[in-house]
Amino acid sequence: MSFFKALVRTIGLTAFAFSLGIAQAADAPRVKFETTVGNFTLELYPEKAPKTVANFLKYVEDKHYDGTIFHRVIPGFMAQGGGFTKDMQQKPTRVAVENEARNGLRNVPGSVAMARTPDPHSATSQFFINFSDNRFLNFTAETTQGWGYTVFGKVVEGMDVVNKMASIPTGVAGGMSDVPTTPIVITSARLVAPAAAPAAPTPAAK
Question: How many Å apart are CA 176 and CA 206, to the nearest integer?
């Protein structure tokens, strides 16, 4: 392949990646989650969501996620975790982080976003991983209904593990619905070395 053709191909792939709203970064930090159903790794995008990523990494550094569960799993929608222990006790959190959902990243399959209350700027430690293209969660306007949910990374390894969560039966626990009857426990969440090269496209980003 000639240099010119290689350059055109590279530009084309880059344009395709950005058309998905998912950045590709060589030095993006990665966080490996070990859970009772398997392991998965998230790649984070501080250049797109600096406050959100800093907030998330601080919880990782503090080992906040160790021992928490995915307490809300809805097949075809998302898996949410990072806030409750196995006995459905909510862990204390720091001050909420500013909503950064207008960063151009979208709630596509495999993307990770911050969970929040109806207040657009109320996200703390809880996050969710999208199973589907949940475009209704994307930013549309700076209004209560339009702010959307901040996407700040994506699954780059172990999406099969994430998808496995959707097959676990759910019920009601602690006054909440869609709680897996067999707890999906995060045993550890640790920062790992940044990617040495741009991440290859994954099913999560298609």
Answer: 32
